[in-house]
Amino acid sequence: MLAIVIVSIGITNDRVQLMNDRLAYLIMFVSVPILWVLAIQITGFPSFLLPPPDMVGDVLWTERELLASHTWTTIVEALTGYAVANAIAIALSISFLYLPWMESLALPWTVIIKNVPFVTIASILIIILGDTPLPKIIIVVLITFFPILANVTKGLKSADPVLLDRMQTLDSSQWEIFTKVRWPSALPYYIAAHEIAFTGSIIGAVVAEWLFARKGLGYLIVQSMSQYRADRVWAVTIVASALAVGAYLLVKVIEKYLFRWQVEDLS
Amino acid sequence: MTIEFSQVNKRFGDIEALQEVSLTVQDGEFVTLIGPSGCGKTTMLRIAAGLEEPSDGEVRVNGDTPRNACRQHQIGVAFQRPALLASRSALSNVSMTLEITGRDGALSPDELLTDFGLGEFHHHYPHQLSGGMQQRVNIAAALVHNPAILLLDEPFGALDELTREAMGEWLGGVLSRSAKTVIFVTHSVEEATILSDRVVVLSARPGRIAEVIEVGLPRPRSRASRTDENYLREVARVRTSLYRAVELSN
């Protein structure tokens, strides 16, 4: 109904779509506490099992320093792992483009990395490397590396052959072809990979900490569970979710900026 | 600059695309290649552009190889599908040529687009332009470094009849102000006749030169020329030659 009203006063379809998207987010954010309270009312669970929103809000405020400190550890591990995953995946994608034999050589490795359950690898790494940031960073790399590799490889190969012919007739260098044609062609694929992988880096870091750590949001979950602190587990869940959603929204903002030319119409 | 095909053969695996093609395109001449689908017109153009190597024979551009002519930025190529980057504006797409070739002796991208009737569309992206406008940007990008040779592979092939006719007139006007050597590939007999000094009719695969027709029409040629008796006679001559080439191939 709102959309119909907006169209009738002359706002473009794109604007209507944007307002509808924002409205959907607003509805979700308002619905969560309502559903939460309803669930408590219907199930009758006591607050130490299913704490009400105000109790969790209280934990978020009173234990903010503890939460911030552990959140920072998780962010550092996630971002470090993600940066390493990006560097390796992009370097490999470029090598696949110019040295096709590299792709054949790397294929079995990438299949293994993608399909071996990372929880078992995490356990092995923790046994070998102990309570250091390294196993967590490696887990983040293993989880996020493949979508970036697959998408960038596909994107670099998707360059328009007509454009490549044009570049060849202009006697362009390989660097010019890469920067002016191949990389711009790969960019939408690369950004699409971030939508999956950047959020995955936060989840990966939390899960790795959950297995074994003395710091980070994953560790805080384990500690809170052992102390029957359901209110803190909920608080950590909210913080971790906010981080993952924040990562996703950041990617969407960057995507919107980079591809702003796509939505500009003749008007 | 001249382009000389000497006894050129081209095979793609078992498929023979071109057979003993010999042709000299003179300096400043506009030559059109016409023939049935798959007769090797585009292959000839790609060989002249240094994008393909002949299997036998050779192609020389002013006595040098096409690759060397490309290195000296003497060749501009426009394909049927515009070679434009979606993320660059019309002006930026044209300027990209100069980012590679340098600006020595080049035309101004700004002035060129304005001259091509795109004065208000410099900052529009390809998806915001019509097919005809995109093709004009494409040709501007092929022309902006001021190459002596222009190779055009069915640049108006995807356009509707009226736009195509208008674009043909526009191209004729643009090229009449320069002295470029042009090889133009088309399926349209009318387009070939109105634009060319000579029309080269190729037979069906393997492509061989069936006939070379001198177009006896004075320049400049305009829309009015299309209703002229001489023009209609020349069109009939090219069409008859094309039919003969197809029949001989069958």
UniProtKB/TrEMBL annotation, chain A:
It is a multi-pass membrane protein. This is ABC transporter permease. GO terms for cellular component: plasma membrane. Pfam families: BPD_transp_1. Keywords: Cell membrane, Membrane, Transmembrane, Transmembrane helix, Transport. Belongs to the binding-protein-dependent transport system permease family. The keyword Transmembrane applies. The chain crosses the membrane at residues 23-45, 79-99, 106-128, 134-152, 189-213, 233-251. InterPro entries: MetI-like (IPR000515), MetI-like_sf (IPR035906). One of its GO terms (biological process) is transmembrane transport.
